[in-house]
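RECORD TYPE: protein structure
NAME: Lipid droplet-regulating VLDL assembly factor AUP1
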Amino acid sequence: MEPPPPPPVTPERLFDSHRLPGEALLRVSLLLYAPVGLCLLLLRLFLGLHVFLVSCALPEGRPRRLVVRAMCAVLGLLVRQSHAGGQEEGQQRRRTRTTTRRRPPRVFIANHVTPFDHNALRLVASCSAPVLNGSSGFLCWSRGFLEVGGAENRTELLESLKAYSAQGDNPPLLLFPEETTTNGRVGLLRFSTWPFSIMDTVHPVALQVQRPFVAVSVADASWVTELLWTFFVPFTIYQVRWLPAVCRADEETREDFAHRVQELLAVELGMATTRLTAADKAEHLKRQRHRPSAFYALPAPPAPLVDGASQPPPRAVPVEDGPLLGMGQRVKEVLPHVPLAVIHKDLAQTNCVDATIANLLEGRVPFLPSEGEPEASSTLPSVSGAHPSTASSPATAAAKVFARSPEARHLSLQERKWALYDYARRKYTEKYGVAQREGSP
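PREDICTED:
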């Protein structure tokens, strides 16, 4: 019997949206550790300033990396490095080191997990990570980024990076083709091709990050928040594995070259390759931010009829979300016989007034009419003038007839919607005393 296929890699699996763990035991452990973590946070904030000053005072080189690495260990930032593969690749690694002595590596390609990946890699190797978001100044310099010209334009950025790499005295470039961080557990984002246009030989670097109690990174968290959590937890371990250099074939395109390096890193990390990009992460975060936060009670199913009476329909529950409440009132004006609880329930899923009205009219959302309110079939007026087709048949009669052709069903829906809109417009005019203009749609 073949094992079931692995579940598809979705943005929900690639990006963590919650910092705290879901297990009850881990939550209790984190609660007990919180006083110690707060003390460590305050102490490490004071020590972190000294680490920054020492890193600025010492010149670039191996002694500086050793000193700063030891001081970062006090801050809870531990970096370990190793070479990928087993003993069978020893000869290949020796050949790679021999080639590296003659031709130093100019481009490192790594997966992206936290906002401080470049700082961790700089503790074990001399490299520079360029700024890609167009920002510059003291803040970027203090975080260890390399400021290059043309960061706003991708073509100018490539020219600047090529000119930088052409100078042999400069440290190698450290690039993250994913262009954004992931949780580092499930898969890799699709690699951009522009980092592979700088040099034909790249050195992949597999990066894994571990920390106790809380998630390594959260999708919508800022680098300041990540820094505070790094100081709060006991330690954060960065495991760096150096892969052999990869050269682009003569007839290999940049896309194929990027995909081949992505597969090598995915196999080394035990993760999957995906076609998702940084734009998909931005869209995922946008959907999360606009997801309605209203809470409501689900309407209970109606009780069976006894002596011609049924259980009263559920009462509407107050909604906490202001925009959702406003949309619910708009739907209620058009469909006064629909309970608010049913309207809010469907609005939480559609977040659209027109879609909710269509769902209620088409019968996709079952409901019982509210007490004390007339049915739509008895209150809808006949429409004349601009929409004469709706005058002969009420909305309820049209709802009970299911046309066979899509065109007829669409026309029936439009007729019912126009009738309900005219009814709602007339109620609004009668309520607020606004004279309806002749010829209005």
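COMMENT: The longest strand covers residues 201-210.
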